[in-house]
Amino acid sequence: MRAGVILVAAGTGTRMGRPKQFLPLLGRPVVEWSLETFLDVPEVAEIALVLAGESMKTHGKRLASERVRIVEGGATRMDSVRAGLACLSADIDVVAVHDGARPLVTREVIASCLAEAQESGAVVPAVPVKDTLKKVTSKQLWVAETPMRSQFWLAQTPQCYRREVLEDALARFQKDKAATDESQLVERAGHKVKIVQSTYENIKITTPEDLAVADALMVRRAAGGPRETRTGFGFDIHRLVADRELWLAGVKLKHDKGLLGHSDGDVVLHAACDAALGAAGLGEIGMMFPPDDPKIKGIASKEIVAKTVEKLEERKAVLLHLDLTLVAEEPKLRPHYDKLKGSVAELFKLENGRVSFKAKSHEKLGEIGRGEAIACYAVATVSMA
Ligand code: MG
Predict the structure, then answer these.
(1) What protein residues have CB closer than 5 angstroms to ion ligand 1?
(2) What is the pTM of this model?
(3) Ligand 1: distance of its center to the CA of 266 in Å?
(4) Which of 147, 155, 182, 384 is deepest in the core (most CB within 10 A)?
């Protein structure tokens, strides 16, 4: 089998105010979670990521790769699927169509749908309806009927098809603007469609509460089981000297002095890393980057953060929040709060709202008060099993 995926992420997000497939979920755009999961499935040879024109500009370049082609979407979902299908290589024989707003799909669901599609031609992953269904016929919401629940399943994606089955259905119903999934066209074209049992976790993010549910499920999954919340504390201080660049929170600031250190002396990132490592019980940055190691001379502290993030990921520790308090007499940092906070968030792969940054003076007391040093305190919260 050579499977191709059409990952549809061209919606404009009318129900959420902005495109839901790009809302942040644990610090990453929603669509990137399922993109990564598909890339992890060995049968998947190619992915056509279908984006709206605007998102192509903002995300296209970053998400394109050897196996991921970026395609511009159409006016309707089916037009977007057609555009995706048209760009898959000729030797792709099974095609999966997936909603960009379903970040929690698993490799297992994808693999079983692909295998079943190769066998039976057309597959819809679905789950049994849990609530009792009521059919209403009037705007006044009078119940007309209670259908037998066991007959109904909720359709999800990735819907998977042998290529010729999907091509046939899409070609026959060119004028259908209302279809909400491909399967209904495939059914109408006379092909049999098979249900594969999926998981209730494979939700579609449609309204704001879905994002909260997805967030909770994602944290639980990342932690690898029942989890707990832990807190870590970090501290760092560096001398402020002439003729050095001043780096704070990964941002180079204009100042006549900078922080002395083997690295760039970025006290904010050092304290933040120590807090995060401390919360996860992973030691401190000195253990990863010994100060006497000649290799660390002059390294950017961003590299220390990248290593810290990697260690947290290995331990399946999900960083939830960083609270940073810088103590400095100069320079004045309030005008830079947004930039510094945004930089920390980006480096630690967190949403902006999960970082707090503030600066205090030291009331002219001691070394910090005399402008001879800058210090930073950090508190990190992580969720882990
Ligand atoms: Mg340091």
Answers:
(1) 236, 270
(2) 0.67
(3) 6
(4) 182
Domain range for 301 is 228-384
Are 210 and 220 a contacting pair, CB within 8 Å? no
Q: From the CA of 239, how far away is ligand 1's center (Å)?
A: 10
Q: What is the pLDDT of residues 265-324, one digit of tens each?
A: 999 999 999 999 999 999 999 998 887 888 778 789 999 999 999 999 988 899 999 999
Q: Are residues 147 and 256 in the same domain?
A: no
How many structural domains compose the chain?
2
Stretches where the chain sits below pLDDT 50 are: none
How far is 112 from 119, CA to CA, in rounded Å?
11
How much distance in Å is there from the Cα of 259 to the middle of ligand 1? 9
CA distance 181 to 161: 13
So what's the pLDDT on residue 366? Answer: 95
Task: Using the mean position of ligand 1's atoms as its centre, give its distance from the Cα of residue 233 in Å.
Answer: 14
Q: What is the CATH number of the domain that holds 379?
A: 3.30.1330.50
Identify the domain boundary among 169, 190, 223: 223
